Amino acid sequence: MSRVLTIARMAFTESIRDKILYSILVFALAMIGSSAILVTLSVGGEGRIVKDLGLACITLFGVFFSVFIGISVVSREVERRTIFTILSKPVRRAEFLVGKFLGLGLTLAVNVSVMTAGLIALAWALEGRWTPRIALAVGFTCLELLILIAFAILFSTFSTPTLSAIYTLMVFVIGRLSADLMQFAAQFGGSSLKATITVLYYLLPNLSRFNLSTLVVTDSPLPWGTLALTAMYGVLYAGAVLALAIAGFQRRDFR
Amino acid sequence: MIEKMSTVSAPSEHAIWTASLGKAYRIGFWRRRVDALRDLTLQVRAGEVFGYLGPNGAGKSTTIKLLLGLVQPTAGEAYVLGRPAGDASARRHIGFLPENPSFYEYLTGQEFLTYCGRLLGIARPRLREQIRDLLREVGLERAAHQQIRKYSKGMVQRLGLAQALLGDPKLLILDEPMSGLDPIGRKEVRDLILRQKAAGRTVFFSTHILPDVEMICDCVGILVDGRLVRTGPVNDLLGGDLESIEVTAVAVPEPVTHEVEGLALQPGLRQGDRVTFRLKGEAELQKVLPVLVQAGSQVLSVVPQRRSLEEIFLAASREAKQ
Question: Which of A3, A156, B260, B283 has the fewest CB atoms within 10 Å distance of its CB?
Fold first, then answer.
């Protein structure tokens, strides 16, 4: 376990020393801040607009981070040949991947926390009251992003960084739309389209379940039972994808 | 010392033990099979320095990666320190320096060694001590807190050696440890390897810098096109190939010179009053020495001329390619 934590700490150190990360963070905060300008165009519901746009920004930049940092986590080690040194130590390949996953998860959590604090402060400035539900919505976004990181790591264990990025983005898009696609296929599709979409629906994660922005923005009552199941689904799904990544990584040759 | 399979003992008695080890890669669109290593059978005993020679692309790095579990064999088996190659518990006792090492550039030398030490499970107080001693041993004390991106190639190589020595490994596997180093750096690495041998460690290193091998190795293996073509103790390889014997004497009367030249490979080489004769072997030497002594000549030197490792290496490469 200590080796996993050592690798996680190093992955965290590596990503926080990456200047690109700070650029993404500053840009995201600027985007969240600029949503306050849009408020001037609307009459009433200023807080809702800011929260809606802010949560969308956090998701968007979170996806950007998860895909581009996630896909480079293994490929960069292979390209720089640092993986030879690390895997020649008594480090199991599973420990290496789990450590990297946890390190990236921690970096993601720190970044998203900074963005969330900015959003909560902005919403408070406009509405004059705290909205702790934003933190809950962001927590679920984090679960969604952890699934994406696991996919990015899975793809990067057997594919090139470019293809891994494309595959991971496809998972995000299909995962977000799978429930809608299922409905569409049920109403209008032929049998082959229905079969394809049904397979995709059950195989790929249903990421729309993690989108709580409507509940937060409209102040609707929270379905705690469903949320608990969704959280469990997210953790188990990320774990399963990571297990697949480990299984593929075990057999990989490092030439 | 290397032994043939028919006479070998169990894998546990050797630092490295392989039997018919092979690795084939599938490359290109048509998945063409390329044999990087074929039928490698060798044993390296604990405590010896083993030089693994071969031209570029011969399969040296593939062998090392197989021993460390970085690539999976497609044939045969390999044991390192009595455990199957790649076993994590055996890796605790192996120090490895990769070819042209490259480390995390954003870390300082000290931070990188701390990271490696934590992966080896070394407790913090002991680790601090070890890092301090190793940085001194490889001459990086002053650069300990400098980022690796600012290191020269030689400094990176030294840092690589320091991380390989962390945790008192029983076996050191060094892939081209002298590559890219200047003569002083090479001498320092040679001395370091000899110090490891004196400390009872086994050292297995690949190289194509042959004079270094002659100087420090107990045994060598020559690999050409993925096949081990020569193995054995360095002295046996060098000593088994006596090319000629050079005898230098002074005050050799003319008739005696003609008599000796009759037994020599070529006419005597004259430099002032000294003459050097090149004889074919021991039998000719036994005939020539009494003749010179009886003639009152003074024999200055008798020097056996042996093939260098380089000549053996080139001959082995030529034979393998034919």
Answer: B283
What are the tens digits of pLDDT across the range B45-71?
999 999 999 888 889 999 999 999 999
| CB-based contact B102 A82, cutoff 8 Å | yes
Q: Which residues 71-110 of A are in CB contact (within 8 Å) with B?
A: 80-82, 84-92
Q: Which ipTM did the prediction report? A: 0.84
Calculate ∠ Cα B160-A88-B128, nearest 5°: 55
Any B CB within 8 A of A1 CB: no
Nearest-CB residue to A89 (from B25, B103, B119): B119
Determine contact, residues A117/A187, Cβ cutoff 8 Å. no
B2-17 mean pLDDT: 64
Contact B25 A3 (CB under 8 A): no
Chain segment B74-123, per-residue pLDDT in tens: 999 999 999 999 899 899 999 999 998 999 999 999 999 999 999 999 99
Distance between CA atoms of residues A132 and A147, nearest Å: 24
Model's pTM, two decimal places?
Answer: 0.83
A90, B69: Cβ pair inside 8 Å? no
Instruction: Say if CB B180 and CB B100 are below 8 A apart.
Output: yes
| CA–CA separation, A159 and A70 (whole Å) | 13
- Better-predicted residue by pLDDT, B276 or A25: B276
Residue ranges and CATH numbers for the domains of chain B are: 5-93+169-238 (3.40.50.300), 242-306 (3.30.70.120)
